[in-house]
Amino acid sequence: MSDSPLLKIENLKTYFFSKGRQAFTRSVDGVDLEIRRGETLGIVGESGSGKSVTALSVMGLVGAAPGVIAGRIGLKTETLQKNLLQDLDDYVELSCADGRVVEVRKDVVGWQKHLERLMGKVRGKVIAMIFQNPKSSLNPFLSVGRQITEAIRLHTPYKSEAAGRERALYWLDRVRMDSPRLRFDNHPRALSGGMCQRAMVAMALSCEPSFLIADEPTTGLDATIQSKIADLQAELKADLGITTMLISHDIGLIRRLSDSVAVMYSGMVVEYGPARRVLAAGQESRHPYTAALLASVPDERHIRGKERLPAISGDVPDAIHLPKGCRFYGRCSRVTAAIESECAELLPPLSDIEPGHAVRCWLFEGSWRDA
Amino acid sequence: MTPGTILEVRRLKKIFVQRRGWFSRLSGGERLIPAVDDVSFYIKEKETLGLVGESGCGKTTVARTILGLTPATSGSILFEGEEITALPPEGLRALRSRMQMIFQDLDAALNPKMRVRDLLSEAITVHHRLTDAEVERKTAELLDQVNLKASKLPSFPDELSGGEKRRVGIARALAVGARFLVADEPTSALDVSIQAQVVNLLLDLQKRLGLSYLFISHDLRVVELVSHKVAVMYMGMIVEIGLSESIAHAPRHPYTRILWSSLVERQNDEASRQAPGSAAGSWGVFDFERPAAGCRFAPRCPVYEAKGRPAVCTDPASAPRLTAAGAAHQVACHFPLS
Fold first, then answer.
1. ipTM beyond 0.85?
2. Distance from A324 to chain B by nearest Cα, in Å?
3. How far is B217 from B204, CA to CA, in rounded Å?
4. How far, in Å, CA of B177 to CA of B165, rounded?
5. How confident is the model at residue B271 (pLDDT cuts 50, 70, 90)?
């Protein structure tokens, strides 16, 4: 296992131009992330924090929409090394007036073609993705077996129909699908949510990708099935050692499966570090948002006492009119008089508070280097 | 009906008929789906009954039948001592000023073309004829009750966040003066931080206004937190009902135990205490369903397996019934856990 990261995202910015409001929705606004080989990186955050858009940017699925994407996504495997965003800017033209963007001209066809050139050999084969809603992500007109076989014949050396089918059955069995031979010919509508999710996982893994993105793999499933899918992910992680980016707002799931964690808020990473440091219970040195997020999950004490939960007041800031200073300032309960002016006016940098553990907050700014 | 009981459901049944083709009645192609099968429970005033179970077990059908949105096939529902299963339309209208539902789908429950102000005033005036000034006053009162800012009044639903939409939904239910609310998955589809706000709001309102809730959710932790009693449903039947503490921490039915042990959070705790691959695995869960004769849970039941598949479990004549198992605790199982 080499130490160089498999995927390195540098200053990723994914904006969508809203014609009605003549402004950019800054969905992802300067994200830096690294995923080492064999590691599982968990990304947590509220809806609208840019988790999914980060994943879609990596997959090159921010396409025809008036999306603008900048930064660098470096992918490095044994056989391949490239920037997944190479020269994409050439297809976008911004016209500004009075310092405001008034129009985005995008060569959609050229952008799409270029993206396909960049991603064609990568998507599915090197990077696979498990989507949020298994029922609507599978093709309703094809049996699950055929869909998996198709992917296998396209991306792996198993080119013949028979070999592909055999391989698909192997993967269905591998994800512990109940009686795979029977389910092979079922259409997605005949399968339960849990079985569809298993089929999705089988399809994603069947091309033996180096990197897997799982976007909310358990959301919308029943509790019993959620834990089964989590078990499956844990087992596959142990057996295959596949590098994974796991996106979820279920902190329990992230805590269980991740090696390192990035907490996202309003399009930015506000805390990044080893999972056991970031999500550990009762820890002082962490971002106020992470602390508040962890506190709002009902724990034993609140359940037993039927107490009120410590909720985060207010809402996620509007991604168009983002506050000037710290993006969590309006909801933060730990602003002190000493740092208040900075919180309101200046965006804090993401800086280390201990080796490998970074926090974007004025509370901790400089604390590590001074100490 | 004992005093202090706001709602009592007795032997409620709802059977849906699925017809295949025009002549199904003749050719026998009808399929009967017993969505709710012989369900009985009661809810006391100012209390919350949690209703849990996997999707498709009939939770929402129970709720819809109580509100008269779906007619019951048989059984009776008493609300404040009054039989409400066969009410005429005018009776139902009057009834809904006393009980309301908080719907699961946030976007479908609010008319996207109405502003928050109109959504609220519509609900306020639907049962009572009021002057504009009174509507104004009542709107302000509702906003205060659900902690919504007055600046949101001119907004359309799609300009609101999930938590705000949920608040508007709750305010509409309160607007008619309902004392009993059926909350169908009020926190699913919300983020944890917003979920906490909604849970707190429901708890506060119960305290301040003396509301009773039927709280339906598959988020077991939230159910445990807000409910006084919990009923566990499996394939249309209640398999266990009791105080929320005992359901969560001393379950008697194997299904209840599986449900609660499947919480990812709890598994984390257990995993940290036990070595991996130890006994916890034997309480694993299954994600496919095969209904059986007799006890419906038998095909998935670890106790049934452990006992060497006793015949009584799958005997159609001896389906387990809810029987008392300790204080305010009932369980439907031939071999309840101790």
1. no
2. 21
3. 19
4. 19
5. low
Domain ranges of chain B: 5-98+179-331
* Per-residue model confidence (pLDDT) at position B252: 92
Q: What is the pLDDT of residues B197-230, one digit of tens each?
A: 889 999 999 999 999 999 998 788 889 999 999 9
Q: Which residues of chain A have pLDDT under 70?
A: 1-3, 63-65, 99, 281-285, 366-371
Residue closest to A118 by CA, chosen among A198, A31, A59? A59
How far CA B109 is from CA of A204, B102, B159, B205, B272, in Å, comes to 36, 9, 15, 21, 42
Question: Chain A residues with CB-CB distance to B under 8 A?
Answer: 46-47, 178, 192-195, 198, 218, 222-228, 230-231, 249-253, 255-256, 292-293, 296-298, 302-304, 306, 308-313, 315-316
User: Quick one: DSSP state of residue A21?
Assistant: T
pLDDT at residue B1 in the model? 59
Q: Are B45 and B92 in contact (CB under 8 A)?
A: no
Residue whose C-alpha is closest to residue B240's, from B337, B320, B322 = B322
Residue type, A93: E
CATH superfamily of B5-98+179-331: P-loop containing nucleotide triphosphate hydrolases (3.40.50.300)
Please report, for chain A, the start and end positions of each structural domain, with discontinuous segments joined by +: 292-370
Cβ contact (<8 Å) for A296 and B203?
no
Q: Report pLDDT digits (tens) over A84-130.
A: 888 887 888 777 777 677 777 778 888 888 888 888 888 888 899 99
Question: Residue B299 contacts by C-beta under 8 Å, 6 or more apart in sequence?
Answer: B289, B290, B291, B292
